[in-house]
């Protein structure tokens, strides 16, 4: 049959990324407590396309995934990208894997246990001249406004916030450890299950630890600076303000 994608294109425009997005696929990630955890991931895969070719062969991305079924993880990440480059005759290949990760959390007073969801990301590229790989997490926390506490005779406005951390690193590390670092850098933690005694504790603990969004990113960055395993990081925090018609946002990265 005629291969339309391999036909010539005469517009002389290179494409940096072309491929498939939103592939739903089961993968297995390492779990500090249980050993492994099966998760349902959303995967994006791309290659570069020289100006002389009309299109890429989309089905070949899925073929590569099927070859690595049950073996898609940090250790095989660049092997998969090298296979993509080979199969599509590309100079560079890129992959992004997003997935939910669950950790059992214990309520601070009652001891009630529940599963807490965190969003995680593996992202990287593989080319002849370079290889890149980073891990990202999105952690829900709570923040209490220091200004609101200072000027109010009773209470202070507080809200749920999301802290996104991305890191490049030298050696393996546990997702749980990075998540824990973030959770303990804000006014308070978020739980799936709290009893009344827990709600009292969480509310009062947060009130005694007010933080601006700037405080949160600086707290996380300060602690990441002390980790010699990390070669680069970025930290962003977004507060979903409870009394304002906007969100508060801050971002910092290792220079």
Could you characterize the architecture of this molecule?
With 255 residues, the chain is α+β, with helices and mostly antiparallel strands. The model has no long low-confidence stretch (mean pLDDT 94). The chain has helices spanning 59-67, 77-88, 146-151, 175-183, 196-207, 213-225; strands at residues 15-31, 35-49, 92-106, 113-127, 131-144, 158-169, 188-189, 230-239, 248-253. The longest helix is centred in the last third of the chain and has 13 residues, at 213-225. It has six helices and nine strands, in the order E-E-H-H-E-E-E-H-E-H-E-H-H-E-E. Helix 1 (59-67) runs antiparallel to helix 2.
Layout of secondary structure:
Elements: E1 15-31, E2 35-49, H1 59-67, H2 77-88, E3 92-106, E4 113-127, E5 131-144, H3 146-151, E6 158-169, H4 175-183, E7 188-189, H5 196-207, H6 213-225, E8 230-239, E9 248-253
Antiparallel strand pairs: 1-2, 2-3, 3-4, 4-5, 5-6, 5-7, 6-8, 8-9
Question: Features of this protein?
Answer:
255 residues; alpha+beta; nine-stranded antiparallel β-sheet; 6 helices; 24% helix
In short:
The chain has 255 residues and is an alpha+beta fold.
> What is the count of helical runs?
6
Total beta-strand segments = 9
- From the N-terminal CA to the C-terminal CA, the straight-line distance is 52 Å
Order of helices and strands: EEHHEEEHEHEHHEE
Average per-residue pLDDT, rounded, comes to: 94
Q: Give the biggest sheet.
A: 9 strands, antiparallel
Quaternary structure classification: single chain
User: Which segments are poorly predicted (pLDDT under 50) over 5 or more consecutive residues?
Assistant: none
Classification by helices and strands:
alpha+beta
Helix content: 10-25%
Strand percentage lies at 35-45%
Write down the Rg.
Answer: 22 Å
Anisotropy-based shape: elongated
